Amino acid sequence: MKSFIFALLMLLSVTVFVTVNAKQTVSHIDEMLTLTEILPQNKKEFENKSPEAELTVLKLTELWERNFPMISFTSGYENTNRSDEAIGALSMYFENGNGSDFTVALADFRDSLARLRILEGLHWHGIF
Amino acid sequence: MAVIFIRTILIYILLLAVMRISGKRQIGEIQISELVTTFLLSDIASYPLTNPGIPLLNAVIPIFTIIPLEIILSFLTTKCARLKNLLDGKPSIVILHGKIQKKELERMRLSMDDLLCELRLKSISSVDDVDYAILEQNGQISVFPKSQEPLSHALIIDGTLNTKLLKQIGKNKHWLHEILQSRNIREYRDIFLLSVTDSGDITLIKQEQTKGDSP
Predict the structure, then answer these.
(1) B65 touches A: beta carbon within 8 Å
(2) Least CA distance to A16: which residue of chain B?
(3) How does pLDDT run across B164-215, given as a tens digit for each residue?
(4) Which of A11, A72, A123 shows the shortest C-beta gap to B65?
(5) How far apart are CA B64 and CA B66, in angstroms?
(6) CB-nearest partner of A127 from B3, B54, B64
(7) Hey, what domains does chain A have and what are their CATH numbers?
(8) Distances (CA, A) of B44 to B63, B172, B206
(9) Range of the domain at B191
């Protein structure tokens, strides 16, 4: 009976840990995805970008750098490398003023984040 | 990580079902759930060891999921005979009083060659010499020669009646109810163990007799 209770508690602890971790990671990813939506989506928008766009890019980079260790810790570097490379490129092209490459890097970053969201959240596609 | 957690549970259940369907002969000397746990743990543990890119948590979470699942399942199977039968199956009589039970052999996917081989390994040359040969839940075959003491058949274990066995030994529920009435027992669930030998000797242990034995 003791081992049964111990096993139940262990399973419960793992379930709570996994659920809390998944919710936290997904909320961070959602926050980053929301920020990507307010950035210029094409070359024309990039040329007419508002002064806040620079702040958004900075905030996005900072958010990614802050969450990168935790996401890699649970998801693995293999799954976070693409996002890490994309955010680096996105930041660099923004600084250089290269609008067409910036939008490509932004799309890549968003796509890689969406895939991470599937892997880290409780999503049918991720499970199967 | 949540995906890994859910996948671990799904694969564990899937492997249990597959091993159960594949038949008793595939198993060996351990129970199905133990075999599945051993399979999974050995593989999961070695994965992050050989690939540093994979987080250790990807092994830790499945291990800490499978171990409690195995303990919970083992506990539940000791408490619920139906669950145990579902997971491990029931012993099957493949030779009864010197006669081969062909249907049972086919159902268990056990060939005549395998059965004869098992008999030879137990130094029995003819099927006629066998009183009972039973394919156990762990895949082993227990053989009882005719010269041995009569075999005891466990008809009721922890309140659950094995109706198939009752029929196999040529008895019926009416016979069983008469025995229970003569011993003032109303329901099967009051019985921990009821076994009967071919010579008709009955062993009955009530549930109340098993309580309070542990220190």
Answers:
(1) yes
(2) B2
(3) 888 888 888 888 888 888 888 888 888 888 888 877 888 888 887 766 544 4
(4) A11
(5) 6
(6) B3
(7) 24-127 (1.20.120)
(8) 7, 49, 44
(9) 152-210
